[in-house]
Design a protein that fits this description.
The chain is α/β, with parallel strands linked by helices and 178 residues long. It contains 4 helices and 9 strands.
């Protein structure tokens, strides 16, 4: 028996907008209500897995901290491994790093030097694409280790901040665009 197509689910209805967080002038998009709703959570994971299907993903690379939540579930759904990119000093083994620009200064992400093997297909995942700095750093980490980035997937994209431009040449996918 062929399953019937599922009803479309409006994931944006499960995103909470919080004005002036974490600082004045910022409109924070909170994914926690989506994660608390079992139907919305399943829908988000299923759509991200659907995006990754056919890309022959070996490893999903998620960033601290919200990128870990769905990243591991997507890896499971794709039959892939999961690697994490973290802030400096959080990983116990030998790491490689990538720096990225912030509004005032720079920050850095690290990954274990053996998290991605040369030639592995990597799907980058995070909750939010804003200016693209952290996403670009994750791409650099994957490629530094010899991985091939086959896609970059987000829950939310803030289109006005043009983060996509830092990912030019890569296949970028977002579940929700504001």
């Amino acid at each position: 028996m062929t399953p019937s197509p599922r009803e479309p689910f409006d994931l944006s209805s499960k995103i909470r907008s919080i004005q002036d967080f974490p600082k004045e002038g910022i409109l924070f998009r909170d994914i926690m209500p989506m994660l608390q709703d079992p139907v919305a959570l399943r829908e988000a994971v299923d759509r991200l897995v659907e995006y990754g299907t056919g890309k022959h993903v070996d490893v999903v690379l998620g960033a601290e901290a919200r990128g870990f939540i769905l990243g591991a579930a997507v890896a499971y759904g794709l039959g892939a491994g999961f690697a994490c990119a973290r802030k400096p000093g959080k990983l116990p083994y030998t790491t490689v790093h990538a720096e990225y620009a912030l509004e005032y200064g720079t920050d850095r992400l690290e990954i274990h030097e053996d998290a991605i093997a040369p030639g592995q297909n990597v799907l980058i995942h995070d909750d939010l694409l804003a200016t693209g700095g952290t996403a670009r750093a994750k791409v650099e980490l994957a490629e530094k280790l010899g991985g091939k980035v086959v896609g970059v997937a987000f829950i939310i994209e803030l289109a006005a901040l043009d983060g996509r431009s830092k990912l030019d040449g890569y296949d970028v996918f977002s579940l929700i665009t504001y």
